[in-house]
Automatic annotation (TrEMBL):
Belongs to the TonB-dependent receptor family. GO terms for biological process: siderophore transport. This is Secretin/TonB short N-terminal domain-containing protein. Residues 49-100 form the Secretin/TonB short N-terminal domain.
Length: 813
């Protein structure tokens, strides 16, 4: 986005923004919450009204979203609400902004005071709505995830990072794992060979850290075709989102229906027979734009650098939105994803390093049948504005049928000769259903000299699972030489899952919890903000098991473990300058339920707490933002061996503990009009602080001491190369421990990626041809180990891909 310097009043008013005449008739607005100057610019384009103001007047200020059909004058009032600015029409086509001389700089989105000061002028260029498919911005100014209110990031006393669609597009990140690589302190754990999206945030494994539009959705490897952006909230988040791991959460925000026509078709093709087609259509369905739609369809078929590994994926995601008035909106969204794929458990470690074998070597079995996972997500969201200050919102999601079937000959451990891997026949099915709901009320008001934005809410989550596990002993024939593999014949038809009989288990599981929460964002002075709140959770976890594959017996053994807890959160933020914030916060969280001891007593649930302090800044009217944070995070009540039990060596006790402390830095946005950047760095010091299994003092798995990334894009705007973009980036991680025993170390690495694209007009459409090279220097590196579900993580090391090429052609019309 280009911004011109300040001009004399006579020149600026003559040239400001739009040439269309002003209209007293209502105008259709679709302006997102963003910086005030950007919103005024979009307003002027929509109405043709020229606006004169001094850029110092709006520096650091943000405007709320503006949507629907409104007359120009009330629309401008809504944009300026909370800014402390007044406006005056000097002609039907010209407005002057002013400020009260008593009003101090640093007003926030909570500010409701009037103002006045002599006007000057500023000139700008067109801006993009946050959900505009053409938006090229690498930084977005607001976040919903950190506070569940539309708050500017610079006014939020918590660490939160946003990955916009532009970064996902430029990197051609087709998986959630790839998309979050540009965020500090976020790693990945390839559970079940990478089937599940499990993230490592601030050193802790977030096995329930994935949310969809603010609602918990545990599980599979999500495609990015239907993602608008990704918001990563760091630290414990129980106050707003309920039970979870303390490192943070990854909230995927899906694409919404559009009020302007948009159609795109993209074809990708690349190394290892990679083919992918993506359609993205949207727009109004009627003349008054009260009924809108969006449809995303993706199909992908690919092999892999790993022998015998392939995947086929289908995704269909329609969304329908109804706006019966300018204050009410209701949306219904569906998303179906089906994957047929080959499970891949990687390679084992020899001594304390990954085995020195080709990274393409597949050690499961070439005769393994393809596995399958499918899920259907249904979203129903609505909100209603009672007036300019009070809004009620409700989000509901149901995932009524999510199935995972896995049948494989799985490497289990390396034999003593350090060359043969022992394998077992493993099969599992997991039928799950999720239901989540969140109802909230937000409002703005004053008490004396204090300005409040309050949030009151209630949410509910339920997960049901029917899990079957079959295994058979393959010891007489299944050991394979990792240096010269010869795969023996199998005595069992892996497709005939029901015929496996050596070991069987059926488990019925049910999690239910609900909570009430409150939050108050208070502006004490013009530049001092306090956010405080709390939540009370009621949680119950139930499970019944049977080891003869009898569902009725498992149901008969079913029992619940019930717990409840209050989780507080408080944050403070001080803005000595409109572009600079200093913040600190304290959080407590209610974590996973640990189940029951050998004598049937429930363990205390996991808990955590965090102290965090940092600095936020934004430059050039919010085009470039930075976040620097230091945190100290502790997790308690981890399960460890019970040394007081002599008769049962498997008995456990919930007295384990771990801590993580570190420094994180993120930089997002534009360095110049042509150069965009995403940069991140994290230093993490993690340690198991209390443990009876011999791991005390060890580093947490897959938590490198140093990690970081940088991704930049340069856009050429001079003829004859206008439309050309060059992008490149580096992604690095230090040495990581592969398990909590610290028995294997994954070497550090630096991976370099690059891209070149050319955007042009042809046949009445906009076309973009792009070529990406990932792992440009062809470095050998390892993504991680499965330190959750694998009994021996050192046997499940997943290699990273070598140099790969990806070409694409996108047509937008």
């Amino acid at each position: 986005m280009d911004f011109s310097p300040r001009l004399p009043l006579s020149l600026a008013v003559a040239a400001v923004l739009a040439a269309r005449p002003a209209a007293a008739e209502p105008v259709e607005f679709a302006i997102p919450a963003q910086s005030l100057s950007q919103s005024l610019l979009a307003y002027s384009q929509a109405t043709g009204i020229r606006i004169a103001f001094n850029e110092e007047l709006t520096h650091g200020l943000h405007a709320p979203a503006l949507a629907g059909r409104l007359e120009p004058e009330p629309a401008l009032k809504q944009l300026l609400s909370g800014s402390g600015l007044n406006f005056r029409f000097t002609t039907p086509q010209a407005v002057v902004l002013s400020q009260d001389a008593r009003h101090k700089p640093g007003a926030s989105h909570l500010d409701l005071a009037p103002a006045a000061m002599p006007p000057v002028t500023v000139l700008g260029t067109p801006v993009y709505a946050a959900d505009d498919p053409h938006n090229p911005d690498y930084g977005l100014p607001n976040t919903q995830t950190a506070t569940k209110t539309d708050t500017p990031i610079i006014d939020t006393p918590f660490s939160v990072q946003v990955v916009p669609r532009a970064v996902i597009n430029d990197r051609k990140a087709n998986s959630l794992q790839q998309a979050v690589e540009t965020v500090s302190g976020v790693g990945f754990m390839p559970v079940d060979g990478g089937v599940y999206n499990v993230f490592v945030l601030r050193g802790f494994v977030g096995d329930s850290a994935v949310f969809r539009n603010g609602l918990r959705l545990e599980g599979f490897n999500f495609d990015t075709a239907n993602l608008e952006r990704i918001e990563v909230l760091k630290g414990p988040s129980a106050m707003l989102y309920g039970r979870g791991q303390p490192g943070g959460l990854v909230n995927i925000v899906t694409k919404q229906a559009l009020d302007r026509d948009y159609h795109s078709i993209e074809q990708q093709f690349g190394s290892y027979d990679f083919y992918r087609t993506h359609l993205d259509f949207g727009g109004p369905l009627n003349a008054d734009k009260t009924l809108l739609y969006r449809l995303n369809i993706a199909y992908q078929d690919n092999n892999s650098f790993r022998d015998y590994v392939s995947m086929e994926r289908v995704l269909v995601a329609p969304t329908l939105t109804w706006r019966p008035s300018d204050r009410t909106e209701l949306s219904l969204g569906l998303e179906f994803q089906n994957d047929d794929f080959q499970r891949d458990d990687g390679i084992p470690a020899v001594l304390n390093r990954p085995a020195n074998i080709p990274i393409s070597r597949f050690l499961n079995d070439p005769k393994d049948p393809l596995d399958n996972q499918d899920q259907l997500a249904i979203n129903l969201n609505w909100h209603h504005q009672f007036d300019d200050n009070w809004t009620v919102r409700h989000h509901f999601m149901a995932v009524p049928h999510k199935t995972y079937m896995d049948r494989a000959i799985k490497p289990v451990f390396l034999l003593d000769d350090n060359r043969r891997v022992f394998r077992n026949g493993v099969g599992q099915t997991d039928d799950q259903a999720f239901y989540a709901s969140d109802l909230s009320l937000t409002g703005k008001f004053r008490t004396g000299g204090l300005k409040h934005e309050v949030l009151l809410g209630y949410d509910y989550f339920q997960k049901e699972s029917l899990y079957r596990f079959h295994a058979f002993d393959t010891s007489p024939f299944a050991a394979v030489d990792i240096f010269n593999p010869v795969f023996p014949a199998l005595p069992v038809d892996l497709v005939d899952f029901a015929g496996w009989g050596d070991f069987r288990q059926v488990s019925v599981m049910r999690d239910r919890w609900h909570g009430v929460y409150f939050q108050d964002q208070i502006q004490l002075l013009n530049n001092l903000f306090l956010t405080g709140g709390g939540r009370h959770d009621w949680a119950e976890t139930g499970r019944g098991d049977n080891f003869a594959d009898s569902l009725s017996a498992a149901q008969a053994n079913f029992s619940y473990n019930r717990t409840e807890r209050f989780s507080p959160r408080v944050g403070i933020l001080y803005k000595p300058l409109s572009w600079l914030s200093v913040f600190g916060n304290f959080n407590e969280a209610f974590g996973s339920n640990n189940g029951r001891s050998a004598d049937g007593r429930p363990f205390a649930p996991e808990t955590s707490s965090q102290f965090e302090a940092g600095i936020k800044s934004e430059f050039w009217d919010g085009r470039l933002t930075a976040n620097l944070a230091f945190y100290h995070l502790e997790k308690r009540n981890l399960l460890t061996a019970n040394t007081q039990t002599v008769t049962d060596l498997t008995d456990q006790s919930a007295i384990g503990a771990a801590r993580s402390r570190g420094l994180e830095f993120d930089l997002n946005g534009k360095l110049t009009d042509n150069l965009s950047i995403n940069a991140a760095y994290a230093w993490a010091d993690t340690k198991i602080t209390q443990d009876n299994d011999g791991n005390q003092g060890h580093q947490l798995p897959l938590a490198p001491r140093h990690s970081g990334s940088i991704w930049t894009r340069y856009e050429v705007d001079a003829e004859p190369l206008r439309g050309l973009s060059l992008a490149a980036g580096a992604f690095l991680a230090g040495v990581r421990q592969g398990d909590k025993e610290n028995s294997v170390q994954l070497p550090g690495y630096v991976r370099v990626d690059s891209a070149i694209s050319y955007r042009f007009r042809a046949m009445g459409s906009t076309m973009t041809a792009q070529f990406n090279v990932n792992n440009l220097l062809d470095k050998i590196y390892y993504v991680g180990t499965d330190a959750i579900d694998s009994a021996i993580p050192r046997a499940d090391i997943i290699p990273g891909a070598p140099r790969t090429f990806l070409g694409s052609l996108k047509v937008e019309f």
